[in-house]
Predict the structure.
Amino acid sequence: MILVAGPYRSGTGDDPRKLEANVRAMNRAALALFRAGHLPVTGEALALPLLETAGSTRPGDALFQEIFHPVAERLLSRCDAVLRIGGPSEGADMMVARARAQGKAVYTGLDDVPAAR
């Protein structure tokens, strides 16, 4: 299981179209991993529905702070590796640092990911 970590809010000004473009980029990477035989996951896939259900009204609000990064942190504990994609992102960099601290593999491109076993 590989966590795809990339920018979500960084550089978007919280513009919904830019946020969605970032999610699509992570989903494209996840699809490539899936087709290569891996089980890809994104924190966004789990956190965004929870945020909607909890009543979050905007990125960065109190509910966002409660849920968004903690979901990714809990998810990371179950993953074997992280694939870091995209540009600057404090959150994605935090996932990379935590993965390394946990002794997990970190990949910086799809070509770096070994074949699925």
